[in-house]
Specification:
With about 240 residues, the chain is of the alpha/beta class. The chain is about 40% helix and about 20% strand. The chain folds into two domains: about 120 residues, Rossmann fold (3-Layer(aba) Sandwich); about 90 residues, Orthogonal Bundle (Arc Repressor Mutant, subunit A), CATH 1.10.10. The protein has a five-stranded parallel β-sheet, sandwiched between helices. A four-stranded antiparallel β-sheet has the order 6-7-8-9, with helices on one face. Strands 10-12-11 form a three-stranded antiparallel β-sheet. Helix 3 links the parallel strand 3 and strand 4. The longest helix is centred in the last third of the chain and has 17 residues. Bound molecules: calcium ion (CA).
C-alpha cells in the first residue's frame, strides 16, 4: 500500500499570500524537500528559468505577472513540472491551465497533504529528480512512445493503437498540417479511406474532452487536413 517517497526535490513555490506560502513550504520541507518561496511573478519567471528546479508550484493570482502568463512564457524554454494553484475550479479555468502548460492543478482552498501527495506523484511520474519526462511533449500533452502512455497534465488518456499513432504523428510536428491522404499513409498504412481518418479524429477529440482537456487541440484545417495546435497557437 505504502509507496516510497521520491528523492528529495528542489521546489520553487510562487505564492504571494504569506500564510499559504508558509504552510505549503512547511509541509514540503517536512516531506524532505528543499523549498524556496518567491512572491512576485516577474522574479519567479526569472528564477524558474535561470535556476535548476525539480518542480514549480505556481499560484495563478500574483502581483507583477499573472500565473498563467508566467507559465506560458516559462514553457517557451522549459519542461519543468508545474502544479498550478487556482482559486477557480470552472472547466474553462482548468482548460486554460492545461493549455498554458500545467501538469496538474489544485483548487484553493486545498489540503496541504493533498498538495504534497500531488507533488510526490508528479515527481514519480517524471522520474529521477531533475530529469524531464521521456518522449514527446507538447504543452501539457506527454506521449511516451515506449510505454504508449499518453497524459494530459496528470490525466491519462486511454487510446486505441490507431488513435495513439495518429496523435503521435500530429505531435511530432505541432502546427504542421497533415492532409488526410498523408495520415492514411502514415497512420493507417495506406489501407483505409480518407474518411476513416475523420472518425479517428472525432474519437480522439471525444477522449480529450472526456478527461477535461481541450478537444480543439486537434484542429481542422479546412480543405487541407488536421494539425495539432502548438500550446501558444490561438484557438
Ligand atoms: Ca495569490
Amino acid at each position: 500500500m505504502t509507496r516510497s517517497a521520491p528523492a528529495p526535490a528542489s521546489i520553487l513555490v510562487v505564492e504571494d499570500e504569506i500564510k499559504t506560502a508558509d504552510t505549503v513550504a512547511l509541509y514540503l520541507r517536512h516531506g524532505g524537500h528543499r523549498v524556496t518561496v518567491v512572491r512576485d511573478g516577474a522574479e519567479a519567471l526569472r528564477r524558474a528559468t535561470d535556476e535548476p528546479w525539480d518542480l514549480l508550484i505556481l499560484d495563478r493570482m500574483l502581483p507583477g505577472l499573472e500565473g498563467s502568463e508566467l507559465l506560458r512564457r516559462l514553457r517557451e524554454a522549459s519542461d519543468l513540472p508545474v502544479i498550478l494553484l487556482t482559486a477557480m475550479s470552472g472547466e474553462l479555468d482548468r482548460l486554460e491551465g492545461f493549455r498554458a502548460g500545467a501538469d496538474d492543478y489544485v483548487v484553493k482552498p486545498f489540503s496541504p497533504r493533498e498538495l504534497v501527495a500531488r507533488v510526490e506523484a508528479l515527481l514519480r511520474r517524471v522520474g529521477v529528480s531533475g530529469r524531464t519526462p521521456r518522449g514527446l511533449r507538447v504543452g501539457a500533452l506527454h506521449i511516451d512512445p515506449e510505454s504508449h502512455e499518453v497524459r494530459v497534465g496528470a490525466r491519462a488518456l486511454e487510446l486505441s493503437p490507431t488513435e495513439f499513432r495518429l496523435l503521435r504523428c500530429l505531435a511530432e510536428a505541432p502546427g504542421r498540417t497533415f492532409s488526410r491522404g498523408e495520415l492514411v499513409e502514415r497512420v493507417l498504412e495506406g489501407t483505409a479511406e480518407e474518411r476513416v481518418v475523420d472518425s479517428h479524429v472525432k474519437n480522439l477529440r471525444r477522449k480529450l474532452e472526456g478527461i477535461g482537456a481541450d478537444p480543439g487541440w486537434i484542429a481542422t484545417v479546412f480543405g487541407r487536413g488536421y494539425k495539432l495546435r502548438r500550446p501558444r497557437d490561438p484557438s
